[in-house]
Amino acid sequence: MLYKHLKDVTDDEKKKIFSRGGELANVEDKVSVILDEIHNHGDEALKKYTKQFDNAEIENIEVSRQEIDEAFYNVDEAFIKHLETAAYNIRKYHESQLPAQKWMSETLPGIELGQKVTPLKNIGAYVPGGSASYPSTALMTVIPAKVAGVENVSVCTPPRYDGTVHPITLASARIAGADHIYRLGGVQAIGALAYGTSSVKKVDKIVGPGNVFVTTAKMQVRNRVEIDFPAGPSEVLIIADESADAKMAASDIVAQLEHDPNAVSILITTSKSLAEKVNQEVLYQAKSTPRNDIVKKSLKNVVILIADTVDSCIEFSDEFAPEHLEIMVYDDEYVLNRIENAGSIFVGNYSPVAAGDYASGTNHVLPTSGYAKIYSGLNVNHFIKYSSIQKISKEGLENIKDTIISISEEEGLYAHSDSVKTRFDE
Description:
Helix content is about 45%, strand content about 15%. It is α/β, with parallel strands linked by helices and about 425 residues long.
């Protein structure tokens, strides 16, 4: 853990903070070899690498509708209701993001300009899995795509050792509206979605979180498909003053740490008293949490900083551009209005990251590693495209005729100029 005043942080310490727990291993060559084999050998390569990496022999790559339905009805009914509650909230939030399907506006007499929205046809959603189940990720990746109007959403998720997919993952994908589910994980899943095989439908875009292998594979297939954004270890930054609850803040720090040993948790506060209490509370909670083996490893990535002013906290946060930003201050509107770089923002002591992770309705697939400076979290706009429209009468074209001719001829594109002139030839 790093605990000190912001002004005393050395350049080396700052560099370490902004490296997000250290550089990830370079796996580009390994990933490239696997992708090439999948591209050339399709299903045969998918089965080979599933055996190698997931220790599972699979016969049918796609999960049958019968298997999905059986899983749904075998999951505890009370848990299904919780999934449906979360799905409802996620769907409602993303429906509010939908743009107008088409609009037109007259900008000059005889010139109508507008825009048409069209959903992508085929989307691939990566849902981590294997022995564990991450139903929330199935909901977060599939539901926005379906809200946007995507015709086909294919889910890839790693199988368990016996070749089956965790029933809770299947149930959540069914609730979300997935059209196809494939028992594939890791690089082989990304390759299958990007290239298509006999069993797997090729997609136009791949979304969803994953480890360094999955992220590297997504980056390498961008000449074939689009992706949402690069993703790294999970992270939270908390801006707080003396109004914050130390126990609550510490619990959110520990919650991020349990993701993996590279997870990053930062508190920057104007209150020395709060910093001391949070520091003690983090160490206490880290001992008692069920995943304390992982938390202990990631404690090295905890940073507690004391700043002189709230403005200094805001400046540091925007430079870091966190995946998750929590604001625990008296004047939270002041901070919220000034923040520019954050994947998802949680305001107040009773707005933990876990709310957005599971049930409030916002999306938890978010840019990490500073990418919040240039990327938005997963939303409806990731699944649609915009086409501009112009509807121009002769009168309208005459209004801009001279401008078109002048600029096109200056660029030496005389056929462009003639295409306008010919419309006014007697």
